[in-house]
Amino acid sequence: xxxxxxxxxxxxxxxxxxxxxxxxxxxxxVVRDALEDNLIGRASxxxxxxLLALFPLLVFLLTLFxxxxxxxxxxxxxxxxxFADFLPPLAFQLLKNTTEELAKTASEEKLTIGVLLALWxxxxxxxxxxxxxxxxxRGKEARSWFQVRAIALGLTLVISILIFAALCIVLVGxxxxxxxxxxxxxxxxxxxxxxxxxxxxxxxxxxxSYALIYSCGPNAHRRRWYWITPGSAFGxxxxxxxxxxxxxxxxxxxxxxxxxxSLGALIILVVWLxxxxxxxxxxxxxxxxxxxxxxxxxxx
Length: 300
Known about the structure:
mainly alpha
């Protein structure tokens, strides 16, 4: 084993040993830094940027789906089914209606300026995430605006391709499961098993996407790649738990439509995006605290 590989393995162990911090110390540090860095306010800004980025991203994905005309509807249905699991019903209906409207105009001809513009605006949310992570890592942005934007564009493109690949896997896997179920006369059992695996798959995708941005986004020197970190795992868990809690709350105490009327669905969508942004930022603070602690105590 080479020294570098030993160092990499040791760093990975250190990350999961919380950099030598106890769970209580890490929690106190994260709460303190979250207040100092104004994560609540920054999450509001991220929610706005996410809202601006969401629909251009859908345009890009739908146009990508259009290249596979025979499977375009199944891919779109698969994408919406994942949103249906996490979004509150009213917000999902708004997203579904908008997606269907966009799908009517998506075509191969849009794989030019329109898609490039959609990808550019979609990367705005990632650029905001990078800016917020720099605050968590106590680093000043030394890269040029073009460098940061190029990184944001690259990350957006990679995540879009990952979404597309994941949907293709789900689609192909679903067809395979249906075939196996019919051949072995286990259709209902196989479908139940396949559906039970989709949630863990979605969770792994979110964790991987978080890890990708945490590793490639901040302006920090000699950053290492980790498939899963405590911050990405906790951030994903917090997002899923908060999304589930928000859905339950709205099921029994839905006052948004009563107060805001037709704007209620949009407000619910923004609140859900706010939750996503806050979970991401808290995960970033966790990773930043662990890495600072590890740097201060290299023996751990």
